[in-house]
Design a protein that fits this description.
By secondary structure, the protein is α+β, with helices and mostly antiparallel strands. It is built from three helices and five strands. A hairpin with a 2-residue loop joins strand 3 and strand 4.
Amino acid sequence: MLNESQNTKRFFEILFVLGSYQTSSVKNETTPLGARYEFPTVAPIKEPTCFICKRKNVELRLPRSASLDLFVQKKFFVDEKSVRCCLRHLTDGFLDDEAISKIVPTEEAFYMTGK
């Protein structure tokens, strides 16, 4: 387990490399893992389902602005490439407070590996 100072350092590392790496919430024997980050996250969702309200047939991927804002404000990581959300949860490209309050983490940490 990381102390607060180590977690803060990792927090800034993530901001720096976000978008340059692939993420995974589970260890896969065929893919070597990179760094493990102790921040809550949502596991990738393969179906076109909103990760907030679970509504089906949602085509909109979470905007990067919303993902980064959620991470900076709440230290909650959501890979925008692996989840979808309803337009009604967004205001000017960011998740609204009600939507943020409904997010339930499915994992306690995530891994970053090189592309």
